[in-house]
Write a sequence for this structure.
């Protein structure tokens, strides 16, 4: 390109990183359509830890024997049930004795999630064996559907919710021919056992219950998948059912009025319920539920750790209490990681799309790199990583029970990494997460592929390459995290331009004609900074590098100075390891993804 052409093209670069409000103004149409999700098939993960997690979970559940997966449904409905018991929470067992022994806790509870994750994996990979397994599991499950399954069943809403998700995903992403009719039979079967509205845990305790586990059901999480079932063509019955289980009185209405009703509530299921509020907004246009979801997530963020995790001992804390600080000394069950991260990804994805506010992307990214990406892989016997530990003397450990809830959400969230990374905007594309990946979409009739190469977050450098069969003008938006420092910059084809000055906490929008071979280089200035635990503990801090929380690897002293922490040096760029130098020696600081069996600490008194 000669100088004149360059000036012409740079003049067409948008002069500003648009604020969320300005991005919203780009879409005068439906309020809920600021940004849209892509199909699973449109985003491919390239070689990276994200891809390794996705491929591991895909292969793991593809290889699990169908008879074992179907066994609890066959057993509880009196059918021949071949195959080995899965064990743990998954298989019926006389040993179940809450809260002492969780063997046999919720038979078949994660079946729908395993099915959902396989359907999504088929959507991503197009792998025929995966589609065949989805179809085989739906047929096998169909033969078991009977009210007998839910008679004397402690958590009917929980397991029904997951089965709804699995069946509508099998229908939507794996083109299962019978999934929606199997859903109808399932709904007929469970109907006598559903409460007439979304009971709270306190209300469940007032109802007669054979044992305490009957009071742990989660009817308030049902609407999201019921709304999705309705949207995917399962029928108006699901719309009515979704509305019936919205927990308005005790949860959404007060949240919408900015009342923090989270303290004391079960953490993951109440974050998960915020996605039900978002579906009420998207399907029914209910602004009250939109406000509830936004406020609810804000209250969660106000009591989050530096990792983005929340809910020590699975319980929300009182604002301005010492709950979070006490948790550092009193528990190792700091954040229910696969379930919590899955719920967090869903609500931030919904809110990002509905508002265009990039801070939801910042929040998702924090949870990704500091929690779920460091989860240990599920073991062949169902042993699963469940809690992240932020105790003052912390370590990684597996949950003692096999096949817990987190074994269901883990393969779901890894299947969602791609669709969480890029979104369609009203006129172009937004890049939300930085990791090696490729996205393909149609832009005004042109087939465009954007390929991202990066060692982020070990390095702040990301290269985006465009390939297209026709030149097309459209805005390409890049999320500039709120923590980004002043040296953050972007180049197009090696050159800068007045419109290319990124502002932290906004989208950098490059609105220009894109040609085959165009190349964007984004450099995020990843400064080290200290993040206090909360407003009441300004001197109890975590060391951050860009989106990454760094953990002091033991042995490490109890106290450090602000200067020592901020002078940390990155010693191994590929792994983001740092050294903090003190009078008594050097301390290594690692990201959560690097930790295996080491003891470590997240928060330091300065
Ligand atoms: Zn869980």
């Amino acid at each position: 390109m000669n100088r004149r052409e360059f000036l012409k093209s740079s003049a067409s670069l948008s002069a500003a990183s648009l604020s969320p409000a300005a991005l919203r103004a780009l879409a005068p149409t439906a309020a809920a359509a600021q940004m849209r999700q892509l199909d699973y098939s449109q985003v491919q993960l390239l070689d990276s830890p994200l891809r390794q997690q996705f491929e591991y979970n895909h292969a793991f559940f593809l290889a699990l024997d169908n008879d074992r997966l179907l066994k609890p449904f066959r057993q509880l409905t009196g059918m021949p049930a071949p195959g080995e018991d899965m064990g743990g929470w998954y298989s019926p067992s006389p040993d179940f004795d809450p809260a002492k022994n969780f063997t046999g806790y919720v038979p078949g509870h994660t079946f729908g999630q395993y099915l959902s994750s396989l359907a999504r994996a088929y959507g991503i990979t197009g792998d025929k064996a995966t589609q065949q397994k989805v179809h085989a599991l739906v047929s096998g499950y169909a033969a078991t559907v009977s009210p007998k399954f839910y008679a004397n069943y402690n958590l009917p809403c929980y397991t029904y919710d997951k089965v709804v998700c699995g069946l509508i995903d099998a229908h939507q992403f794996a083109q299962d021919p019978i999934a929606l009719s199997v859903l109808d039979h399932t709904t007929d079967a469970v109907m006598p056992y559903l409460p007439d509205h979304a009971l709270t845990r306190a209300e469940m305790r007032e109802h007669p219950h054979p044992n305490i586990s009957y009071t742990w059901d989660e009817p308030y999480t049902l609407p999201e998948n019921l709304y999705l079932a309705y949207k995917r063509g399962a029928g108006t019955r699901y719309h009515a059912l979704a509305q019936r289980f919205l927990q308005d009185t005790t949860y959404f209405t007060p949240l919408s009025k900015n009342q923090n009703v989270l303290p004391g509530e079960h953490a993951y299921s109440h974050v998960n319920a915020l996605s039900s509020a978002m579906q009420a907004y998207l399907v029914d246009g209910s602004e009250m539920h939109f406000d509830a979801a936004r406020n609810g997530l804000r209250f969660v963020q106000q009591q989050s750790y530096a990792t983005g995790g929340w809910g020590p001992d699975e319980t929300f804390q009182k604002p301005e209490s010492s709950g979070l600080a006490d948790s550092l000394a009193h528990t190792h069950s700091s954040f229910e990681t696969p379930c919590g991260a899955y719920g967090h990804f869903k609500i931030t994805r919904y809110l990002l799309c509905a508002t265009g506010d990039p801070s939801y992307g910042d929040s998702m990214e924090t949870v990704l790199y500091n929690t779920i990406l460091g989860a240990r892989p599920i073991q062949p016997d169902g042993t699963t990583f469940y809690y992240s530990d932020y105790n003052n003397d912390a370590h990684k450990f597996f949950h003692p029970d096999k096949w817990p809830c987190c074994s269901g959400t883990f393969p779901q969230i890894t299947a969602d990494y791609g669709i969480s990374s890029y979104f369609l905007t009203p006129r172009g594309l937004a890049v939300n997460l930085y990791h090696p990946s490729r996205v393909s979409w149609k832009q005004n009739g042109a087939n465009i592929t954007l390929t991202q190469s990066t060692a982020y977050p070990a390095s702040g450098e990301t290269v985006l390459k465009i390939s297209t069969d026709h030149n097309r003008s459209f805005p390409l938006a890049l999320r500039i995290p709120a923590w980004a420092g002043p040296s953050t910059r972007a180049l197009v084809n090696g050159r800068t331009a007045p419109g290319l000055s990124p502002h932290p906490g906004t989208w950098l929008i490059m609105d220009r004609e894109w040609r085959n071979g165009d190349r964007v280089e984004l450099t995020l200035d990843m400064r080290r900074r200290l993040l206090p635990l909360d407003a009441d503990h300004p001197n109890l801090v975590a060391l951050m590098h860009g989106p990454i929380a760094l953990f002091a690897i033991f042995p490490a002293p109890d106290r450090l100075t602000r200067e020592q922490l901020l002078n940390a040096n990155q010693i191994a760029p590929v792994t983001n390891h740092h050294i903090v130098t003190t009078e008594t020696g050097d301390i290594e600081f690692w990201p959560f993804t690097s930790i295996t069996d080491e003891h470590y600490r997240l928060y330091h008194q300065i």
In short: The mean pLDDT is 93.
